[in-house]
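Hi everyone, sorry if this is the wrong subforum. Our group has a chain we'd like a structural model of before ordering constructs, and none of us has done structure prediction before. Sequence below.
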Amino acid sequence: MTASEKAKAKAEQAAGAAMEATGRAVGNERLTAKGRAAKTMGAARETKESAKDMGKH
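Answer:
Right subforum, don't worry. Here is the predicted structure as tokens:
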């Protein structure tokens, strides 16, 4: 996994977690769902990059 892709994945997961927490704090289900989706996308990106790395070795 390239460092930039790993950073993007972690940043996306962190932003999603922040959105989800904010949504829960203010009772906004739409924001909570957007946060969950962003976390999932970050995790998917990380998994994809890890799979690419395993193919290289």
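For your construct planning: The mean pLDDT is 91. The chain is about 90% helix and 0% strand.
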